[in-house]
Amino acid sequence: MNEKIATRCVFFIAGLATSSWAAMVPFAKMNTGVNDALLGVLLLCLGGGAIISMPLAGLLSSRFGCRKVITCAVIIILLSMPFLILANNPIILGLLLLMFGVGIGLTDCTMNIQAILVEKNENTPLMSGFHGMYSVGGIAGAGLMTSLMSLGFSIFTSTLMVAVLVCVLITLSFRHLLSYANPAEGPAFAIPKGEVLLLGVICFIVFLAEGTVLDWSAVYLVEVRNVADSLGGLGFICFATAMTVGRLGGDAIIKRFGQLRVVVYGAILAFIGFCLIFTSDALPLLLTGYLLIGAGCANIVPVMFSQIGKQKSMPQRVAVPAVTTLGYIGVLAGPALIGFIAHHSSLPHAFVFVAALMVVVLMLSIIMNKNMKIRGDA
């Protein structure tokens, strides 16, 4: 194992842990006896924990190095995962979700700091492949939890098995994680500005689009396009598959076409995908739309994180948490915003709004290219 493989393992762990929790949600709801409204409030604890911890990642990694921060963050995840299933009180579940969110937030930020440094050391595009492993981890987590429970294992036992897998992976990766990070320059926390603000806004929009597909694709297909209930998940499957394949092959694509073209054409593909969704009735065209959104969005965020290592507006140790936090806010706020638009207008109009935001990504990427001179090299 080397630094690249260790970094891929950490991205895989983050995706695995996050998607494993998704499989636990119905059981956590049943154990605590909460209704949908209270469950929604409790789920905010996870996002709140992540957002609280993200600004700390740069400070902690500068002081202790990526290896120690990532390892401690994964330990927090491991300590909280089994108890998420055992919690039978809403307050306890909320505290555990806050703890779990802190682990996820620290891991997400610090693994991107490590990824930027490894990419710089290797002097070749690697970021898309790293983020691709997060997507692979997400698919693996959902698939593993489902398979284990289908074989007759309880949700608690299944969760413990996933936790053991995470423990093995972080143990194997430990020696090859970076013992250093960015120097402690500038403030511990900072509001994004200049080039970092552009990067953060683009990540916010793309994560908002991803959250929209995750939470609303099945509802749209079933309730608006009258697709059978059993086929409602096909939209997200197409999206996730295209995104995963796109990211795993993204480094080679970026080497060949350059980062600017990947972002510009990606935004155009995603825009066309959303247009297909709100203008088509045929299922093949609708699924093609989701495929195009996944393929288009796949490498935009990885390119933005690569650019953090090149920008001069802010120290990297505060720039990474700032951009990551903005992106995470997009994931949290996006589905709620879409629901608000759908309630006051219609769900197709909400998708029109997201399509318009992809045009904003296109425009911002062109502006960013003028300011930062995006290149295909790392």
TrEMBL record:
- Coiled-coil parts of chain: none
Q: Which domain of life is it from?
A: Bacteria
Mode of membrane association: Multi-pass membrane protein
Q: Where in the cell is it found?
A: Membrane
Major subcellular site = membrane
InterPro entries the UniProt entry points to: MFS, MFS_dom, MFS_trans_sf, MFS_Transporter
Under what name is this protein listed?
Answer: MFS transporter
**What does the UniProt keyword field contain?**
Membrane, Signal, Transmembrane, Transmembrane helix
Keyword set includes Transmembrane = yes
Q: Which intervals hold domain Major facilitator superfamily (MFS) profile?
A: 1-373
**Any one Pfam family match given in the protein's UniProt record, by short name:** MFS_1
Signal sequence span is: 1-22
Q: Which residues cross the membrane?
A: 38-57, 69-86, 92-118, 130-149, 155-175, 196-219, 231-250, 262-279, 285-306, 318-341, 347-367
